[in-house]
Amino acid sequence: MQAWQVHENGEPSEVMRLEQVPTPTPGDGQVLLKVRAANINFPDALLCRGQYQVRPPLPFTPGVEICAETEDGRRVIANPALPYGGLAEYAVADAAALLPAPGSLDDAEAAALHIGYQTGWFGLHRRAGLQAGETLLVHAAAGGVGSAAVQLGKAAGARVIGVVGGAEKAAVARELGCDLVVDRRAEDVVAAVKEATGGRGADVIYDPVGGAAYAQSAKAVAFEGRIVVVGFASGTIPSPALNHALVKNYSILGLHWGLYNTKNPKLVRHCHEELTELAARGAVKPLVSERVPLGGAAGAVQKVADGLTTGRVVVTLEETA
Description:
- The structure is a single chain.
- With 321 residues, this protein is an alpha/beta fold.
- The protein is built from 12 helices and 15 strands.
- The strands form 3 sheets. Strands 3, 4, 5, 6, 7, 14 and 15 form a 7-stranded mixed beta sheet that branches.
- Strand 9, helix 6 and strand 10 form a beta-alpha-beta unit.
- Helix 4 crosses helix 5 and helix 7 packs parallel to helix 8.
- The protein is globular, with a radius of gyration of 19 Å.
């Protein structure tokens, strides 16, 4: 089969190679899946660089989120078991963790419904307790993780402020349903949020960026507000001033979605049921901005790594079906 292989760590475009390799053999409790679509995630870039919390043995195939077909013809969503990732014609996954792909979404959309939307749902509902009528601020609102949070926030009845970098991404954020869009390159984010909220600030802040975005969050959060720390796409991990959290009376909440797969997998399945229902009524729909063939996967991972994409970039394998 064809699969992208990483033999040494580095930038995705430099270390990913498309090769002919043997079809993987599933281990105990695992299944072989025929990949239909693989959604590119920032962790795929971190895996290539050797900077992710999981470091599979070399060589490995990236691709942590797929829509695939089982041997008995079921269409499923899965997180492949590395080193046999999803940027290949076939992948391996744990049988117990397979989720049914929503019939309301095509393969590319279904592949993109899982990690980003699960992260958003757990972050906004399980961790932050977002309520209808509250103000939600989403950093990188036009990106893959941010766009999911915007849709989930609107579905929950929140007022959503999206922070983006550039006019093109601002247009995407408006199309996603943001009530207010702030271009961090042209506007003062904190001042814009304070003006929009009558000086109060945002009740919930969803931050997959870190760095300067977190510093803005701490200044823009409301009394009894909640900052959800999702990731550090900026490459800079902030060091929160806990005295500031104390005097302003706000919460800093960490979210590592992958832990729920081991600590409370029933919640993951419940979340998927909620997301499937939201997708069925059109309340959420992954923004797939680009669909590329398997041969274009290395370039796609690099674009995501460089922050040059909006929504989701998905590798589709119709040409190998």
